[in-house]
Amino acid sequence: MNFQGKLERIVKNNNSLLCVGLDSDLERVTGKYKKLKHPQFEFNRWIIDQTHDLVCAYKPNSAFYEAEGLKGTLALKFTCHYLKKNYPQIPIILDAKRGDIGSSNKGYVKFAFDFLGVDAITLHPYLGRESLTPFLELKDKGLFILCHTSNLGANELQDLNVIPGGKAAPESLFDSGRARYSLARMTDKIPLYRYVAKRVAEEWNRNGNCMLVVGATYPKELKEIRKITGERTILIPGIGAQGGDVEKTVKAGLNSKKKGIIVNSSRGIIFSENPRTEAKKLRNKINFYRI
């Protein structure tokens, strides 16, 4: 079963658009797990067992495991293996934000899909479609392309106006004293994030498995991107610790079938006093605004 089919089945079975991000920062993993041989994995296993019937996906962030070297890489491998063995119906999205020249991407493909066995991965578009060919050739895997991210500084580049066709809109000279750009007077320029959305939707998505990442902290941009991408699924981080608004996010992101979004929460769930309670609360809140 391809990623989209797997996702649609679990969304229906669990009545959920919630993704739990396994951002298991070892510095925040405390208590009995800290004393175990593989604390990140044991912590993840507990979170998964607490929430598996409330989610549509899990999203481990590779950075928190790579930071711990070999032990962290093993914890990530064990986590993916545990999910595939015990909850094979739940998709795994590796949050790795890969994107390099083609030969390097072949290595990332092997690590994500052969070694870890995940169902999807996050990618960045900066090097263009050609560089992502090793990923784009995988018809059964989910590919989430960064479009408008959730961080405060996202607009530094993602909101820059460009001329469709690959050329950046010419700007006036940089004013080093005031650190500002003045916009050129052009009628055919669009924000870079919209250009990325259009390229992915119209040119890159030949196998029907290219999706987008749009932060919950930018609901206006999310609404615009939904119009561009049609019915395709959008991965939405930024709910919880980053302050994204659930109502605005759901209403802006849903497709015509009242689906089409994966709403991720990481720290707000896994480091709460009761992860199951928090996951259930957020799952139900998302569903409330789907009506």
From TrEMBL:
Location of the Orotidine 5'-phosphate decarboxylase domain: 17-282
Pathway(s) per entry: Pyrimidine metabolism; UMP biosynthesis via de novo pathway; UMP from orotate: step 2/2
Record's catalysed reaction(s): orotidine 5'-phosphate + H(+) = UMP + CO2
InterPro entries to which the protein is assigned, alphabetical: Aldolase_TIM (IPR013785), OMPdecase_type-2 (IPR011995), OMPdeCOase_dom (IPR001754), RibuloseP-bd_barrel (IPR011060)
Family matches, as SMART domains: OMPdecase (SM00934)
Natural source organism: Candidatus Roizmanbacteria bacterium RIFCSPHIGHO2_01_FULL_39_12c
Keywords: Decarboxylase, Lyase, Pyrimidine biosynthesis
EC number: 4.1.1.23
Cleavable signal peptide: none
GO MF entry, a single one: orotidine-5'-phosphate decarboxylase activity
GO BP field: 'de novo' pyrimidine nucleobase biosynthetic process; 'de novo' UMP biosynthetic process
Lineage: Bacteria, Candidatus Roizmaniibacteriota
Pfam hit, one: OMPdecase
Name of the protein in its database record: Orotidine-5'-phosphate decarboxylase
Protein family membership: Belongs to the OMP decarboxylase family. Type 2 subfamily.
